[in-house]
Specification:
With 660 residues, the protein is an alpha+beta fold. It has helices at residues 2-12, 23-28, 37-40, 55-61, 85-97, 107-121, 131-142, 168-171, 201-206, 246-256, 293-300, 324-330, 338-353, 356-366, 369-381, 426-430, 443-450, 452-466, 472-493, 495-506, 527-542, 574-585, 595-609, 619-630; strands at 46-53, 105-106, 128-129, 179-185, 188-197, 214-217, 232-236, 264-273, 277-289, 306-308, 395-399, 406-410, 593-594, 616-617. It has a seven-stranded mixed β-barrel with strand order 1-4-5-6-7-9-8. Strands 10-11-12 form a three-stranded antiparallel β-sheet. A hairpin with a 2-residue loop joins strand 4 (179-185) and strand 5 (188-197). The chain is globular, with a radius of gyration of 26 Å. The two termini are 28 Å apart.
Amino acid sequence: MHSLLSRLFSRLLPAFTPISFSMFAVAASPDFTRAKPADVLDTSKVWEIHLRFRADQFAAMEPKGGGFPMGGGGGGRGGRGGFGPGTFLAPAWMTQGDTSKDSKLSKEEFRAMSERWFAAWDKDKAGKLNSSQMREGLNVAMAPPADGARGGPPAMNFLGREGGRNGLSAMTGVEFDYVQADLEFGGQLFTNVAVRYKGNGTFMESRATLKRSLKIQLDEHVKGRKLAGMDTLNLHNCVTDPSYMNEVLSHRLFLDAGTPAARAGYAKVYATVEGKYDRKLWGVYSIVENPDNDFARVHFGTKKGALFKPVGRRLFEDMGDDWAKYHQTYDPKTKLTTAQQRRVIEFAKLVSHASDTEFESKLAGFLDLDAFARFMAVTTWLSTLDSILGMGQNFLVYLHPETSKFHFIPWDLDHSFGQFHLMSSQEKREQLSIHEPWHSEIRFLQRVFKTQAFKKIYLARMEEFSKTVFEPQRFHRQVDEIASAIRGAVQEESNVKLDRFDKSVAGESVTPNPMGFGTPMAPRKPIKPFVVARNASVKDQLAGKSEGKKVAFRGFGGGGGGGRGGRGGGFGPGNFVAGPLFNLLDADKDNSVTEAEFKEGFAKLFLKWDKSNAGSLDEEGLKDGMNADLGPGADGIPGPAGSGRRGGPPPGDVPVPTQP
């Protein structure tokens, strides 16, 4: 009946009106225009969200561009400005081969690099290489510096184009456009809202499915409209987290520790697309409050401050006196005054140039020490390393208009509870040092942690929280409470996901989705056993019984213990390109590459990639060539482990249907 009414209304009403419409649900629904965020962001409930798109609007929402480092459909092999293995590996190859340091690879340098590599990889001096030796050799050659040199993960730069988004998907050329849709939330209809996809790594991982993260603007076309006091809804697809709880519980923990953080709840999301789907279930999402002016009013008592979403590991580094050089890195979410711009630059100069004595004496004038101590205590305890501690992203900075001090706000916490597999082993993440929790050199954190005033407050907060909000049994109860609320909704999504969910809730380790690399990753320990191990480690460190562990970037994936990659188990950049490179070099197809084939093959690649016949390759030319010949779609690039295909959705996800 509902389906029949939907089709009837869609034919009778003009194009700009809802495609389908439930008069009974709307009439009986609560009035969310008068509710408060707490009425919606409640983990004991799972709301029903129904999005309705015209066919042309749904098609227009699909991002253009962007290749696929993780497999999956769409995209392509990249190209100048596109994405593929060259995005990560071209800078590393340039470093390996550019002996003249002129930011180019000459034909001679390219040849010499290939000769060095063959000699190093042919450890048995057999005069030939198999595919495992090539993969291992590439992993070693492309590994991050053993001394933890500045700069973090190799070849990683999350800056997007000037004025655009930052992050992994943005640097692939992906841009998200808003389209028009109708939103039914808990039975209440909001017509003509703006919807777009969102996310970076999670978007790349879920692009072959319908279940992608979404941002909904309620006031884009209807000024002043809000749902439970919110004009923006963030719907996160939980694709990296089989428990569906990492983000929700982490935000709650920050709030319980006195740190401004988004509230979060749950929803089942359905979609109707004219002529394609009728109320199709996309899955269970977390609803996450948007950090905006209303958020600032609640947590800071004013809407007038400045909000930034920085990216990069060189936070508060002096880049000169021109704000234009800072703008993209700090990505302001509010319109800035000249004074606010100057405040960022002044703090950057203090962090970069002040003596230890001057820095300690002036730090409290720029940074709210107690607020930052709370933020860092929770961030460190959660061992959430896709953050300020590791990748230099997934946090916001608020500049208070009255105190002129900076405050930090957490964001994108799906890899919390020690589940960011690109950083070290499970054991090291559980025992992450509370005294030096960051990877490699991050000058801002190093300088702040060196000051006695901050360190005293930070350790006091860590001690306090270890006896209260960090208590493991507290997390166990929260996991069980949320599980009872959302299990039925997860079951509706798929039996595969339900099985992974049940194991996670029970405390059993679950292997992550393979993300299209073809090599399985090490199982991740879920919340319950992690919090027990983590709390014990932190207490031992506070008591002086342990120094904790330092972490390091280990590569994209990570079966078998990570590190630089090794024969039959390690994982690193070589897993991107070893297969297609081996096939290109193995001229006689005998499953081995001789020294002659290796050198001749590299010579041919140089000539092919040097499209302008300049006799040298710059980084862009190298990247373009690698994307074309070694990227997704090239021979040897696998899909998800055991799938027998090149890319596709994770198990249990709804794939994007073939377009007619």
